Amino acid sequence: MASRKIPRPAELKILVVLILVSVVWNAFRCFQALIHQDVIGAYLSAPGYLYLSLSGGFWALVGVVVSLLAWSGLPPAWAALVASFTLYGIWSGLDRFIIQNPHGNETFTGIASLIMWAFVLMLVFSEDIRDFYGRRSKI
Fold this sequence. Notes:
Blueprint: H1 10-35, H2 37-42, H3 49-72, H4 76-99, H5 106-124, H6 127-132
Helix pairs in contact: 1-3, 3-4, 4-5
């Protein structure tokens, strides 16, 4: 009996690319914080190189795992996508608006973040994605 392979929807490909962009961004954050820890320390930049490095490394690792899981097509990947995008959105908002020093563009950043988060969730909840992960009847 031959197994029927379901093609990956375009929405999934877009989501995986967005995740991989985040992986690169966070890996860059991690390594730059480690490389330039003396500069960060000299300017007493809050929250410090250790936080920047650990948070960047953590989210890069999460992104790699979630992108591999999403690409695999396993049903738990859908929940991982929803959870990771939601938690990353919450963390990035808290990081930007509470932990970091004010930048003066909080309104723009907040609105842009909400638009991006809505776009991503629109993709995650799309009919094609739900069909691909077999979540059609569960939502």
